[in-house]
Specification:
Blueprint: E1 6-11, H1 21-35, E2 39-46, H2 53-58, E3 61-66, H3 80-83, H4 88-94, E4 101-104, H5 109-112, E5 122-125, H6 130-140, H7 144-160, E6 169-172, H8 175-184, E7 190-192, E8 212-215, H9 221-235, E9 242-246, H10 251-257, E10 263-267, H11 271-280, E11 283-286, H12 296-304, E12 307-310, H13 312-315, E13 325-326, H14 330-340, H15 347-360, H16 363-374
Parallel strand pairs: 1-2, 1-4, 2-3, 4-5, 5-6, 6-7, 8-9, 8-11, 9-10, 11-12, 12-13
Helix pairs in contact: 6-7, 9-14
Length: 376
């Protein structure tokens, strides 16, 4: 078997800056592939993010395509996230050669399912069970119009998911997602390949910090709900500081946090500032209400931070339970905060964490596996 020399990657968004979930996986995948000598031909949809010279430095070619976000894209049997990304220009670019194609997210299926690509080697990179993800967005959303959109999109995605059988193999980010897909499509070739990320060593600092930290993209309903939960149910009367940090918090979350002297908000901070917050925290508190995909902020806090306090849903399918502190109710979380706030984080904790993370979450090992999977 010879390693691939060229690879098309179709990304659902511009993957730089790598500052939220899915684009982190895409960007670092490209970076590590490039370091292995693979010439990446990147195709990405342009909406809300600027074209990036950084991508042009690490890719052989970069092409941008407008996303069709008009009202017309909503009126289709196809999911909106799929319909709005159909591009004839992209298809024309892909059929110029015979390189394998990696499709990032179900978002890119409208192109991947085109009959002109039927004989190509096509790999689907999953990051969520999409219809479950949108169902949980529906449950978390408070705006009635967005709520209806998420409900309809979840329904369409559930029906559309069967198109996955048209791809040669599927790469999933968690073992629970692997089990879920194989239970519905036993004919699939589904490989477990955790998300790529920026950390290659555990850089956690020994000792003790002075605050708890919650991080997340605060424009996402699920993360807003988790932040509200921690504020309203856990930290509202604890004599211990909580910092909430992330992108684009809504005004109502800012207003809620401003009511409490022990809780503060750090919106839209730089990557370096976020790393400093994670490293210096005594405990990183991560709560989710849906057990799909792999939460990349969990990896960031385990590689960079001290104690990581999570609920069960955060670790489903990851194998990381043993290096996290677990709590599932407000009272359990409160008790863990009180217990952990004065506990010293030791060298033994760092070594135990590094040993476990190296088994499944080594970028070096996983990029070799990716090259092998695409080179079959």
């Amino acid at each position: 078997m010879q390693n691939i020399k060229h690879l098309h990657i179709v990304s659902f968004n511009i993957p730089y800056p790598a500052n939220y979930g899915g684009v982190i996986d895409v960007f670092y995948k490209i970076k590590y592939l490039s370091a292995e000598g693979v010439k990446v031909h990147l195709h990405c949809y342009e909406y809300g993010r600027e074209q990036s010279p950084v991508l042009e430095e690490i890719c052989e070619t970069v092409n941008y395509y407008p996303r069709k976000t008009t009202l017309y894209s909503h009126f289709s049997i196809l999911p909106y996230i799929v319909k709005s990304r159909y591009s004839e220009v992209l298809i024309q670019n892909l059929i110029k050669d015979n390189y394998p194609i990696l499709f990032e997210g179900m978002h890119t299926f409208a192109v991947g399912l085109d009959k002109r690509l039927k004989q190509r080697r096509k790999i689907y990179r999953e990051s969520n069970i999409e219809h479950e993800y949108y169902y949980h967005l529906y449950k978390s959303e408070k705006n009635i119009f967005k709520k209806i959109f998420f409900a309809v999109e979840s329904f369409r995605l559930k029906k559309f998911e069967k198109q996955i059988v048209n791809f040669d193999r599927t790469l999933v980010v968690s073992k629970s997602d692997q089990k879920s897909l194989l239970s519905r499509y036993p004919q699939l070739i589904v490989e477990y390949l955790p998300s790529f990320h920026p950390d290659n060593i555990v850089s956690s600092i020994e000792g003790r910090g002075e605050y708890a930290l919650y991080i997340g993209n605060l424009s996402v309903p699920e993360n807003i709900l988790a932040a509200e939960y921690l504020v309203n149910e856990v930290f509202f009367d604890l004599e211990y500081p909580l910092i909430v940090a992330g992108l684009n918090p809504p005004p109502h979350l800012e207003k809620l946090i401003s009511k409490y002297e022990n809780i503060s908000l750090k919106p839209n901070i730089s990557d370096n500032e976020m790393t400093e917050l994670i490293e210096n925290a005594q405990l990183n508190v991560l709560i989710t209400f849906q057990a799909t995909g792999l939460k990349l902020k969990l990896l960031s806090t385990l590689f960079q931070g001290r104690f990581v306090l999570v609920n069960d849903e955060m670790t489903v399918g990851t194998g990381l339970e043993s290096v996290c502190e677990l709590a599932n109710t407000p009272n359990e979380i409160r008790k863990q905060v009180v217990f952990l706030k004065s506990k010293v984080f030791t060298k033994d904790e760092i070594l135990r964490r590094a040993s476990l993370l190296d088994i499944n979450y080594s970028n070096k090992q996983n990029i070799q596996k990716l090259v092998e999977l695409i080179s079959y």
